[in-house]
Amino acid sequence: MDKFADLFKCYPMRLTITLTLMIFFSACQTETAETPNDLKQDYFFDLKSYIEGEITKLNEQQPRIEKSIQLRDKTEVKQFGSLDYKKELSVFSQADINKAAWTDKYEADTLYEQGIIAKISYQAIDPSLKTNLLEISFTNDNINHIYVKAITESLVANVYKEMNYWPGKGYQLVSAQSTVLSDTTAVAIDAQFLE
Predict the structure, then answer these.
(1) Contact status, residue 46 vs residue 98, Cβ threshold 8 Å
(2) Chain segment 34-49, per-residue pLDDT in tens
(3) Based on C-alpha coordinates, what's the Rg of the chain?
(4) Residues in CB range of 180: below 8 A, 6 or more apart
(5) What is d(CA 194, CA 169) in angstroms, rounded to the nearest whole number?
(6) Structural contact between residues 124 and 131, judged by C-beta atoms closer than 8 angstroms
(7) CA distances, 43 to each of 6, 27, 46, 137 (Å)
């Protein structure tokens, strides 16, 4: 009995030490653990972040660019020394599909050439999604082409867009819109970096 009495006398002290150590270690873990906002998970290719990086680079470099705009039968060509690339390329950012809610709404396919990724394609399974197809092509692990096909259909209007982006070379936007009250209107913008 005396042994058990001695054990119970020491028990509160051991319990206090154990609890203190547990609180100390859990406090240390809480301080070093990343919060959910710090954790960024990519579900698909992060088009928005990639384009934002390109926008920053182009806004700093301001390469000379030649833009051709075709509307119906008329084509206008102009050269620019500087542009607001956030405005120019925002349409690509809007086509981003990297969202947790869409993980089961796209089918991904990766093409390899000699063990290296050559192309990643994301095809929409759900027809209600605006970005129908996103393709990223690579050369030697570097992105050399991004292709986006976007379709929006409603009772009032249907909009079809094809977008191409070639890093360091230029971009192309083709859009066709038809409404209940009008014929299809198509616009094509072709921009090439000159330096």
Answers:
(1) yes
(2) 334 434 556 788 999 9
(3) 28
(4) 155, 156, 157
(5) 8
(6) yes
(7) 59, 31, 8, 18
Q: How far apart are CA 107 and CA 92, in angstroms?
A: 20
Angle at 147 between CA 143 and CA 148, to 5 degrees: 135
The candidate with the shortest Cα–Cα distance to 102, out of 62, 160, 168, 44, is 44
The C-alpha atoms of residue 176 and residue 40 are separated, in whole angstroms, by 35
DSSP states along 124-140: ESSTT-SEEEEEEEEET
pTM of the full structure: 0.75
Sheet (strand 142-153) strand order:
74-80, 65-71, 182-193, 170-179, 157-166, 142-153, 131-139, 116-124, 106-113
Q: Are 36 and 167 in contact (CB under 8 A)?
A: no
Encoded tokens for 82: 């500087």
Delimit the domains of the chain by residue range: 1-37, 47-193
Which tokens go with 37? 């906002």
pLDDT in tens, 61-117: 999 999 999 998 899 999 999 999 999 999 999 998 888 888 888 999 999 998 899
> 142 near 119, Cβ under 8 Å?
no
Element (H, E) at 31: helix 2-32
